[in-house]
Amino acid sequence: MKHILFFILFFTALTVSAQGEFNSGYKSIPAPKFDAKPKKLPAPEVKNPESQNTDIPSIKTPNIFDNISITPKSRFTIGEEKSNFSMSTENKFANPGDRYIPKMEKDLDKALREAGLKEGRGELVKKNISLGEIKTKSAYFIVKLRDFGAIDGDLVKISSNDQVIQSQLFLESNFKQVKIMLANGFNKLDFEALNIGSLGGNTAEIQVFDDKGTLITNDYWNNLAAGFKATIIATKE
C-alpha cells in the first residue's frame, strides 16, 4: 500500500515538473499595436443622371429629312403667302427662274443674229454697207454666196462697176458661185438685196477667191432691207 502511494506521488511530481519546464519555454506572441484606428474610405457618390449638368452636349441621332445643314428649308411653303405686298401675279408653283428666260432668249437671239448665225424679224438695215477693200493682182474673182439662215427666199443681184453680172441669184443653204472679171484699177462689186425673206431681212454669207483659189475674204450681211447693197472695192494692181 505504501509502495503504491509512493509511486503515485512520484509520478505526480514528475508531471508537475514537466509542465513547469514546458510553460517556462513557451513565449506568447503579443498582439500588434496600432497608433490609430484605420481610416474609413468614403463611399463613392452616385449622381443622378437626370440631375447632372455637364458641358458635354447630348448626342442626338441626326434626321436627314429634317437637317437644315444638309438641305435648307425654304421660307415659303405651299399655301403660305410669299410676302405681304407684291405686284406680281405669278403662279406660286412656277419656277422663279422662268421670269428670266424670255430676256435670256432675246439676248441669245440677238447675239446669234449679230454673229450671222440666225435670221430674225429685227430692225431692217436700211443703208448700204461696206464689206471692205481688196488689192489684188488676180485676173478675176470667184464669188460664192449662200443663205446662212433658214431658206426663206432671199434674192440678190450682182454687179461690177454698175454692169449686171447676175440679175437674180436665189440664195440656198449651199454656196452658189459667180465669176467676176476684174478691170485694171478700180472695181466696185455690188450685191443688192432684191427682197426680204419670209423670216426677216435679206441675209447672206459671201466668200471671195482669187484666180489661184486663195480665199481673199469671208464676210456676211444680215437683215438687209430690199434695195440696199453690200459692196466690195477691189483694186487690181
Average residue-wise pLDDT: 76
Distance between the termini: 186 Å
Indicate the radius of gyration in whole angstroms.
59 Å
Helicity level, as a percent range?
A: 10-25%
**What fraction of the residues are assigned to beta strands by DSSP?**
25-35%
Overall form: rod-shaped
SSE string, helices as H and strands as E: HHEEEEEEEEE
> What's the CATH class of the domain at 129-236, please?
Mainly Beta
Total strands: the figure is: 9
Low-confidence stretches: none
* Sheet of most strands: 5 strands, mixed
- Spatial arrangement of strands, main beta sheet: 1-9-6-3-4
Characterise this structure.
With 237 residues, the chain is of the alpha+beta class. The protein has a domain at 129-236: Lipoxygenase-1 (Sandwich). It has 2 helices and 9 strands, in the order H-H-E-E-E-E-E-E-E-E-E. It has helices spanning 2-25, 101-114; strands at 129-136, 140-146, 155-160, 163-170, 176-181, 185-193, 202-209, 215-224, 229-236. It has a 5-stranded mixed beta sheet with strand order 1-9-6-3-4, with no helix packed on it. The chain starts with a helix and ends with a strand. 15% of the residues are buried. The mean pLDDT is 76.
Task: Summarize the entry for a quick read.
This protein is an alpha+beta fold.
Describe how the helices and strands are arranged.
Layout: H1 2-25, H2 101-114, E1 129-136, E2 140-146, E3 155-160, E4 163-170, E5 176-181, E6 185-193, E7 202-209, E8 215-224, E9 229-236
Parallel strand pairs: 1-9
Antiparallel strand pairs: 2-5, 2-7, 3-4, 3-6, 6-9, 7-8
